[in-house]
Design goal:
- The complex is a heterodimer.
- Chain A contains 14 helices and two strands, in the order αααββααααααααααα.
- By secondary structure, chain A is mainly alpha-helical.
- Chain A is globular, with a radius of gyration of 27 Å.
- Chain A starts with a helix and ends in a 9-residue tail after the last helix.
- Chain B has two domains: about 70 residues, no CATH class; about 210 residues, Orthogonal Bundle (MetI-like fold), CATH 1.10.3720.10.
- In chain B, helix 2 packs across helix 15 and helix 6 packs across helix 9.
- Classes of the chains: A mainly alpha, B mainly alpha.
- The interface between A and B is large, with 102 and 99 residues.
């Protein structure tokens, strides 16, 4: 159309035949730029996802070709006591770690947002643990929490508390791991809240103060609602990260999940099924079962979000 | 921010009494200092242990200050395991994947952010969706693929995928590219520059800070990666440091002093890197966190 009308007038540029290549040149350019990723998605995500679903319906030990067994793996999964333990451990971890991570990060961010001097120093201090590789985090905490030679229980004894067995105790192993994860995660989450706090309009808080709202009321009615989009985001990230939790319990227990399987989280169980027992089909079924759970949880969070997530009107991105 | 400072200056009603402000500041500092100490204590213990002799390490009750102060644990740690081989492997893994991600993700994000073509929104949605997929789903089939092509035991399974893009970095760079003005690129286009030329000569220089974030994050990710090396690096000569640290656990028990020394060596370069790149870092975290 555009070409036709241009041609009717005096053609400034020579009219080209509207060939397919010419008309679609933007699409071709776009596809070319994106081609590595399109290949990447197909080869490293789409194909493996489909293959994983197929393997989940088979028995496969890598040595012999996969044998189709229908829903056998899923049926076995439903009765596997180890799976039940792993799900319990993972749920325990997620139920405590996700809210604690959000609450403590907001707390630290609020403190840092008070515009006291030396903020940069504190910010760095809280952020440092994030930089420590998970392996080093795990090892240093195992030693820190060592019931006999570690410094943690000695510090507790100073204030008259007899420290627990931490990672060696079935009661305390999970709380210990949650503590370790929090140490490594708060710094990161805190930064995101801090950035978001700086976007809360000061005039709004000032206006509320003039109207007689105290600090707590301002926090609950102005600041926290402004943070809900980030909380929402962190909740989704937390759910996905929770199911993928692996390195810390693996390194702490040397892959065993002991004491008494209290640290056998889902990621660890799946790893053992695939790379110790070479039950590739069974491990794939585990992955799919977990993915369905994750999607359901994420879906629920999404569905409830319009009730509690506040988006500033006219929000720029 | 500047605006808000100006506003509070204008309103005389908002003015707080200085005394209350001082108390507030003191309380805040005390709370922050205590919290900061809690965060710092495990580090101090790590450092303290790494500078002790074995008998000092197994003292009860434990002591903070090493006496005598010694670097023996570091010396031993470097020889108990082939530390420098592992270090070289870690650096290779970090640098090559960082390069791979910078090249591939900048190309792809250019295609998503700056070229108007049908399907770019669909591809972007797919990109976001892939981030929601737990890695466990693709773990087994990827292993089977790489085993079939004979790559298990080499770095290739860890490196090659990064040359085809990573969803998170593509997302990050796309968001960043959307914020840079189009005019310069449009002018170049009118002058007859090809899209690739515009990408290479105009957009790349403008997004350098974001590329630094990608390189930094990937370097850090690969440095600390455990699961990937655990699965694919079956040959001891290819171990990375993260993986090699387990070798201080022998059948005779754990060499705690050496382990803490090696953990310090694993952590220190990252912290040094952080101090040199703090700005980039914090920008990166807030950029990706907020734009979710």
């Amino acid at each position: 159309m555009a070409e036709a009308s241009t041609a009717a007038r005096r053609p400034v540029t020579p009219t080209r035949p509207a060939s397919f290549w010419y008309r679609e040149r933007a699409t071709i350019t776009g596809l070319l730029f994106c081609s590595p990723w399109i290949f990447g998605i197909l080869a490293f995500i789409v194909y493996p996802t489909i293959a994983s679903f197929y393997y989940s319906l088979t028995q496969y030990d890598l040595l012999q070709a996969p044998t189709f067994i229908g829903l056998g793996n899923y049926a076995q999964l439903a009765q596997d006591p180890n799976m039940l333990t792993a799900l319990y451990n993972t749920a325990y971890y997620m139920v405590l770690w996700i809210p604690l991570n959000i609450l403590l990060s907001i707390g630290v961010a609020l403190l840092l947002n008070l515009k006291v001097r030396g903020i940069a120093v504190y910010r760095t201090l809280f952020y440092l643990p994030v930089l420590v590789p998970a392996v080093a985090t795990s090892l240093l905490w195992v030693w820190f929490l060592n019931p006999q030679y570690g410094i943690a229980n000695w510090l507790l004894s100073l204030v008259g508390i007899a420290g627990p067995g931490w990672l060696a105790s079935t009661t305390w192993a999970k709380p210990s791991v949650i503590l370790i994860s929090l140490w490594g995660s708060i710094g990161n989450t805190m930064l995101i809240y801090l950035a978001s706090l700086q976007d809360v309009p000061q005039d709004l808080k000032d206006a509320a103060q003039v109207d007689g709202a105290n600090a707590w009321q301002r926090l609950v009615s102005i600041t926290l609602p402004m943070l809900t989009p980030v909380i929402f985001f962190e909740l989704i990230i937390g759910i996905i990260a929770g199911i993928q939790f692996f390195t810390i319990p693996y390194v702490i227990t040397g892959g065993t999940g002991n004491p008494a399987d209290s640290l056998t989280v889902f990621g660890l169980l799946l790893y053992r099924a695939a790379f110790f027992d070479f039950k590739m089909g069974y491990a794939s079924a585990m992955a799919w079962a977990a993915t369905v759970v994750i999607f359901l949880l994420t879906f629920i969070v999404f569905r409830t979000s319009d009730r509690w997530v506040y988006y500033q009107s006219g929000d720029t991105r | 921010m500047n605006a808000s400072i100006a506003t509070s200056g204008v309103h005389p009603l908002v003015h707080r009494r200085p005394f209350r402000k001082t108390v507030e500041a003191v309380v805040t500092h005390v709370v922050l200092a205590i919290l900061g100490l809690v965060f710092l204590v495990p580090f101090l213990w790590l450092l303290s242990t790494s500078l002790k002799t074995d008998p000092q390490i197994f003292l009860f009750p434990p002591r903070w200050i090493p006496s005598p102060l010694t670097i023996d644990q570091y010396r031993l740690a470097l020889t108990t395991i082939p530390f420098f081989v592992y270090l070289k492997n870690s650096v290779v893994y970090c640098v090559i994947t960082a390069i791979g991600d910078v090249i591939s993700c900048s190309l792809v994000s250019y295609g998503l952010a700056r070229v108007r073509w049908r399907g770019r929104n669909a591809l972007f949605i797919v990109t976001i969706a892939t981030m929601l997929l737990p890695y466990q789903v693709t773990l087994v089939p990827l292993f089977i693929i790489f085993r079939t092509v004979g790559w298990v035991g080499t770095f290739l399974p860890l490196i090659v995928p990064h040359f085809f893009g990573s969803a998170f970095y593509i997302f990050l760079l796309r968001q960043f590219m959307l914020t840079i003005p189009m005019e310069l690129a449009d002018a170049a286009r009118i002058d007859g520059a090809s899209e690739f030329r515009i990408y290479r000569s105009i957009v790349i220089p403008l997004i350098r800070p974001a590329l630094a974030v990608v390189a930094l994050f990937q370097f850090l990710g690969a440095w600390g990666d455990f699961l990937g090396p655990l699965i694919y690096l079956t040959d001891q000569t290819t171990y990375t440091i993260s993986l090699g640290l387990q070798q201080y656990n022998t059948q005779y028990g754990t060499e705690w002093g050496q382990l803490m020394a090696a953990s310090t060596l694993l952590t220190a370069p990252i912290i040094v890197l952080f101090f040199f790149t703090q700005r980039t870092f914090i920008q990166g975290v807030t950029l990706t966190g907020l734009k979710g």
